[in-house]
Amino acid sequence: MISGRFLRLTGTSGLILLACLLAAAIYVPVANQFIDPGSPFHVNTASVVVFGKYLCFAMLALSIDLVWGYCGILSLGHGAFFALGGYAMGMHLMREIGPRGVYGNPILPDFMVFLNWESLPWFWYGFDMFWFAMVMVVLVPGLLAFVFGFLAFRSRVTGVYLSIITQAMAFALMLAFFRNEMGFGGNNGLTDFKDVLGFDLQADSTRIGLYLLSIAALAVMFLICRAIVLSRLGKVLIAVRDAESRTRFIGYRVEHYKLFVFTVSAMMAGVAGALYVPQVGIINPGEFAPANSIEAVIWVAVGGRGTLVGAVIGGIGVNLAKSYFTGALPEIWLFALGGLFVVVTLFMPKGILGLISHWRRRQPPPEPAAETGAPSSTAAEERA
Amino acid sequence: MNTLHKELTRTVLYLDGISVSFDGFKALNDLSFVVEPGEMRAIIGPNGAGKTTMMDVITGKTRPDVGSALFAGQHDLTKLDEADIAQLGIGRKFQRPTVFESHTVRDNIVLSLAGKRSVFDTLFARAREEEADRIDRVLDTIRLADRAGMMAADLSHGQKQWLEIGMLLAQDPSLLLVDEPVAGMTDAETVQTATLLKEIARDHSVVVVEHDMSFVQDLGVMVTVLHEGSVLAEGSLDHVSADERVIDVYLGR
Ligand SMILES: Nc1ncnc2c1ncn2[C@@H]1O[C@H](COP(=O)(O)OP(=O)(O)OP(=O)(O)O)[C@@H](O)[C@H]1O
Ligand SMILES: [Mg+2]
């Protein structure tokens, strides 16, 4: 039995989203392993990896929506937190290669041997341990966001100025990571990973495992975000978004609230990046590119800012469209993306999800039917 | 010295020699002003006289260039920020009604309720029984009980003004600063608002800024006239409206 509390936590559209994720978690692996490759229902392994990637993008979109949609902080640098989480994971995967690298050095990753480095830089210590790397995946982006947010929010930097400095932060990190002396593989980044926790990264089973893990992480993040926005703290966030000074004058320390949500959001982006890297097999400074952060904001705008489900839809949907268009009409993809953003901001301020709920309100909805639909899918959800 | 100290601690609000300038323009000029406990005071004065700026100084939004501002005789308002001052017990209604548009009327009150304000308190806050009672009482007072579930954005202008006053009440401050509460209200709403403020003034100190003379008349309290950043006259409405200088700069226009 599903409790009313769970339904209240997810919301109706959230429940549908979780049901879809569950269905995808079941269908894709089954179709990959057991359906004949000739059949149109077969999902090849490359597609599993692509879906896994999109799930990570959806997590990034979710984290952006939490700060932008609910607290009005338009971050144009969230790609940096994603990339930092990715690098933390990549460093572990590098260490796990061990003596199997081209140069066979049991401690130093290949690029360090190539640069004639004698020993491991101090900040690489500990990354041979999986748990340590996982802590860093959330700690490093979280810490950066905390320090950055502490300075920015305390000086009351808001609006466009804040967006610009988040963008500058991402750009500065990109330039730094491009440098070989930084010790993160420079231009080439980190790649040629072999396995994670002993599982071969090239194996179908590992790829399916990572895909499933991404679904689970997305579902958990969605629930965490929901819990945050439904709490009284979430109401304060919306209050800050709508009338920041009013919120101050009734006694809330606005900068603390912003700092909290910005840090949590950066940690989520870090986790998304950490799941992304083993699936794509590489992390390089290009991930810090300001354009990446901007694109992620567009996903949120398209899906529906301030609706967590919309952010997920945007993160997955826009990327599906992108992969279709880049294949079919490669020249126009960038224009299509830009055009999409313009159309959405002008005509669909609440994105795709806003449009859907607008339509539903216009036709007298057969509510009872929708109600009976829900419990069966929730029952399935609970078994998961 | 000792008697002065006693005098001070008896006051709710004590402003002395406050000056504020914006790019060389003196918005407040050696302003001194005192509010006693339980007092309601009306402030009038022409546009640009510095009424809103005075509230900005009291609530920590604007720092004075010189002068002292004390709350309850002991808290130096020029050293504290908005959140501190609000938590000390000074509530403020803005000149342009500002409510949380995408929250319900009820949630607007919930957020304003006196209580803990830290991130972790609000993250784990649960709705409590006695809170519900307080909210209902506030909603009754501001006559919005039947609109509790409505989005604040959908309220009429006058109702938004009341909601903002309700948010002040929920905060339960000892001093309320109310900037132009009846701007844009119908006559009937204006009369109701006067009644509402008089009700509130029974157990709070209140400072009301208003241009509407019949409303100020209705309140029937001591009036301070501001002009070019300092006090021009003080006394009953009849007294100040007989003053030549007040007629010249304000009432006579
Ligand atoms: N932030 C600011 N920067 C520059 N000038 C300001 C600022 N705030 C107020 N002023 C100026 O200070 C003067 C006093 O403004 P204030 O808003 O206090 O007047 P007021 O008495 O509230 O007038 P009104 O009745 O129109 O509300 C005005 O001339 C205004 O233009
Ligand atoms: Mg004013």
TrEMBL record, chain A:
Mark the transmembrane ranges: 6-29, 41-61, 67-90, 130-153, 160-178, 208-229, 257-277, 297-320, 332-356
Q: Which domain of life is it from?
A: Bacteria
Q: Does the keyword Cell membrane apply?
A: yes
Q: How does it sit in the membrane?
A: Multi-pass membrane protein
- List every stretch annotated Disordered: 363-384
Q: Which Pfam families match?
A: BPD_transp_2
- Please give the GO cellular component terms listed in this UniProt entry: plasma membrane
- Listed GO MF terms: branched-chain amino acid transmembrane transporter activity
The subcellular localization recorded is: Cell membrane
Per UniProt, the keywords (alphabetical) are: Cell membrane, Membrane, Transmembrane, Transmembrane helix
Cross-referenced CDD domains: TM_PBP1_LivM_like
Which stretches are tagged as biased composition: Polar residues? 374-384
Mainly localized where? Answer: membrane
> Does the record carry Transmembrane helix as a key word?
yes
**InterPro entries reported in the protein's UniProt record:** ABC_transp_permease, ABC_transptr_urea_perm_UrtC, LivM-like
Q: What is this protein called?
A: Amino acid/amide ABC transporter membrane protein 2, HAAT family
Q: Provide the species name.
A: Thalassobaculum litoreum DSM 18839
TrEMBL record, chain B:
What InterPro entries does its record include? AAA+_ATPase, ABC_AA/LPS_Transport, ABC_transporter-like_ATP-bd, ABC_transptr_urea_ATP-bd_UrtD, BCA_ABC_TP_C, P-loop_NTPase
One example of the protein's molecular function in GO is: ATP hydrolysis activity
- Gene Ontology CC, one term: plasma membrane
Known CDD domains for this protein? ABC_Mj1267_LivG_branched
Tell me the domain of life.
Answer: Bacteria
Pfam families associated with the record: ABC_tran, BCA_ABC_TP_C
What keywords are assigned to this protein? ATP-binding, Nucleotide-binding, Transport
Q: Does the keyword Lipid biosynthesis apply?
A: no
Taking every annotated instance into account, which residue ranges of this chain make up the domain ABC transporter? Answer: 13-253
Is Cell cycle given among the entry's keywords?
A: no
Q: What is this protein called?
A: Urea transport system ATP-binding protein
The uppermost taxa in this organism's lineage are: Bacteria, Pseudomonadati, Pseudomonadota, Alphaproteobacteria, Rhodospirillales
